[in-house]
Design goal:
Blueprint lengths: L12 E5 L3 H7 L6 H21 L3 E8 L7 H24 L3 E5 L7 H14 L6 E8 L1 H17 L10 H5 L12 E4 L18 E4 L10 H12 L9 H7 L1
Parallel strand pairs: 1-2, 1-5, 2-4, 3-4, 5-6
Helix pairs in contact: 1-2, 2-3, 2-7, 3-4
């Protein structure tokens, strides 16, 4: 499939909702959902490698949502420890492969050991120029939008900004994804047809690709390539007509 991909028509930014880890574990007779989360690391590595292989510039992984804090305490604690251990195990390899790690979300609320390891990994890879892997950790789209609104409201209150001067571009500059292009393609495994409070502003014109019968731990680069091939035959109109798009080609 890789040979069929048009390198001149790649999605610049792919966002992924990595769903189905718990169900994957349950299907295999494991009571603890963390078993699925551990096996999901192979899917993450293969997806990053696939993006690097063909030249995708940005990959955002929805790893832990704000709502996930409401899960059983044991699962949350295990996920925080998994973040630390996986970064320790993988960051040197990512660095050697010129991959840059970034994050979006409320990192201030992470346990100190998790936050420390995450920030150290980001610092280590900050000058790398390959695929940018953005870890959405303790993130929600509504929080992102509300936070941007608060920042602008503060500027209005201080008298440095007129409300009538606020534009979409100005609002975008206050989001945690500032400087990152909006996703062109959003992939979701696990079969659910929703975006689950993920990049609500940024996904406005993303193409959606849902894997109905595939849980995230089984996701591999061939699935990534298949989604990209499907993306490449879609007509992206951005509110225009097909005729307008053809005239501009």
């Amino acid at each position: 499939m890789k040979e069929q991909i048009d390198r001149n028509n790649l999605p610049k930014h792919i966002a992924v909702i990595m769903d189905g880890n718990g169900r994957w574990a349950k299907e295999r007779g494991f009571a603890e959902r963390i078993f699925g989360h551990r096996h999901a690391l192979k899917a993450i590595k293969d997806t990053i490698a696939g993006c690097a292989e063909i030249g995708v510039e940005y990959l955002t992984l929805y790893a832990f949502s704000t709502e996930n804090w409401n899960r059983p305490r044991a699962e949350v604690e295990a996920l925080m420890m998994l973040l630390v251990s996986s970064l320790k195990d993988e960051i040197e390899d990512m660095h050697q492969n010129n991959i840059r790690l970034m994050t979006i979300g409320e990192t201030d609320v992470l346990p100190s050991h998790s936050r420390r390891e995450l920030l150290a990994s980001i610092e280590k890879t900050k000058n790398n120029t390959g695929v940018k892997v953005i870890l959405a950790w303790s993130y929600s789209g509504r929080w992102d939008i509300a936070n941007a609104a608060k920042n602008l409201a503060k500027q209005v209150k201080e008298g440095v900004l007129n409300p009538d001067d606020i534009t979409e571009e100005m609002f975008e500059s206050q989001l945690t994804t500032q400087g990152i292009p909006d996703p062109d393609l959003m992939i979701r495994t696990g079969g659910d047809y929703r975006i689950s409070n993920f990049l609500l502003w940024q996904l406005a014109y993303a193409e959606l690709y849902i894997f109905e019968n595939l849980f995230w731990p089984d996701f591999r680069r061939e699935h990534l390539f298949g989604a990209i091939l499907d993306y490449q035959v879609r007509e992206r109109r951005f509110g225009k007509t097909s005729e307008q798009i053809k005239l501009n080609q």
